[in-house]
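Q: Convert this sequence to structure tokens.
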Amino acid sequence: MEFAIENLAKVRREIEPLLEQHWQEIALNQDIIKMNPDWEGYARLDNVNALRIYTARKDDVMMGYFVVIVSKSLHYRDHLFANNDVIFLAKPARKGLTGVKLIKFAIESLAAEGITKLHVNTKAHQPFDAILERLNFEEIERVYSLVLR
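A:
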């Protein structure tokens, strides 16, 4: 498996089928909230160097991604934080340590940029907490959701 940081223009078409698989497998409230990415919003983030797309490829075929958004912290203005947007591995790539290696690759890349902190959220109904804990992440908060319409 090869890991890389790639830009949106290069990977958008290739990431779309994986994103659909991801949505089908993970998303809650699919009857109300349909997948409809704001590609223009992602492009704006990419244009201001706030978007990081880390990919896992096997034989040049994308098998997974870890996307984070980097921004200055509103609470701690001297620091840049990276917050994960989405993380997904196609089922054939979930064997072995691919997920661990993808996250480690992102951690090393972000640290080399001088990012202070990386936040990763997981779905309560399909967590990967053990992987994050193995990588020395700590649970820092819980998020609750309520559908309003």
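The two ends are 42 Å apart (CA to CA).
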